[in-house]
Amino acid sequence: MIALALVGACLGAAVFALIRRMYPPTVSPLVQLGRFDARRAPEGSQTSGPMLDGNSGLGARVGRWAAAELERRGWSYTSLRQDLALTGRSFEAALGRKAFAGLAGFTLVIATCCGLQLGADWTLPSGSPLVLAALAGIGFTFLVDLEARQEASRRRRDFRRALGAYLDLVALEMAGSAAPAEALPNAARVGAGWPMALLRDTLWRATLSGQDQWEALTDLGTRIGVTELRDLGALVRLVGRDGARVRATLTARAATLRRRELAEAEGQAGQKDQSMRLAQILIGFAFIVFLAYPAIVNVMAF
Question: Residue 75: which pLDDT band, with cuts at 50, 70 and 90?
Fold first, then answer.
């Protein structure tokens, strides 16, 4: 009994640590934007990404070592980096979390197998606990990627929605005889959400560094994985400095974003409608079984 209690306590502690590690406290989008800017600061600055991520201990050291090894071998993990750029976490912190998640999955399965062998007197095939633990550890490492992908997908949807409104505002500013260098930051000052704050910060940094604003927006789209923003800078550079053509390009791209958003909303509504129909069919089938069960039992009794 004491062994079972110890195994149960260890399993509970491992599950609690895993849940706390996989679902950290929610951070304000503006705080995440500050962390995003700090990671892009020069190397001589006083703040750094891992310190701001709150992961300056063993996880940070493991993540930095893993990131260095992956970079040395040419593994870039571009998709994960783009997802993390939108979630406000650093790549090194994510690698540290992946390492701890894999270790937690491995330990959880080993402890469970030991508990079954000691408490329930189950005999498992030789080597199977290690194989199961290794598979669980590998599977747990992908939980970090799945979490980042889900959150980044939601944020990209919010960013695209704000981007369509932003492009319309830029076109209106340019229709009022404003130059693109003035229209871009002026339109970004209208909104108060995190997408507008990110656009304002990008344009402000581009102005300070002397970088072309459209090029800065293109780099931002590449960094966070928003293809619409990345392609927009290339389109504007193709049409040149003609204000009317730039304004027409912005209006057309904003209309495209709205049509895409409408199509996604209709697709989600269709999926929910199909789910409701399936649920109704299952409820009806269960009700028929409930009504027919007594009759079936009586017939089978004879």
Answer: confident
Q: DSSP for the chain, please give it.
A: -HHHHHHHHHHHHHHHHHHHHHSPPP--HHHHHHHHHHHTS-TTSS--HHHHTT--SHHHHHHHHHHHHHHHTT---HHHHHHHHHHT--HHHHHHHHHHHHHHHHHHHHHHHHHHHHHS---PPTTHHHHHHHHHHHHHHHHHHHHHHHHHHHHHHHHHHHHHHHHHHHHHHHHTT--HHHHHHHHHTT--SHHHHHHHHHHHHHHHHT--HHHHHHHHHHHHT-HHHHHHHHHHHHHTT-HHHHHHHHHHHHHHHHHHHHHHHHHHHHHHHHHHHHHHHHHHHHHHHHHHHHHHHHHHH-
Q: Say yes or no to pLDDT of 142 above 80.
A: yes
pLDDT tens, 105-115? 888 888 887 77
Per-residue pLDDT at 46 exceeds 60: no
Task: Indicate the range of 171-185, 232-246, 274-288 predicted with least confidence.
Answer: 232-246
Q: Which residues contact 221 (CB under 8 A, 6 or more apart)?
A: 227, 228, 229, 230, 231, 232, 233
Q: Return the structure tokens found at 20.
A: 């706390």
Confidence (pLDDT) at 283: 92
pTM for the whole structure? 0.64
Domain segments of the chain as ranges: 2-22+51-154, 158-259
Report angle CA 228, 148, 203 to the nearest 5 degrees: 40
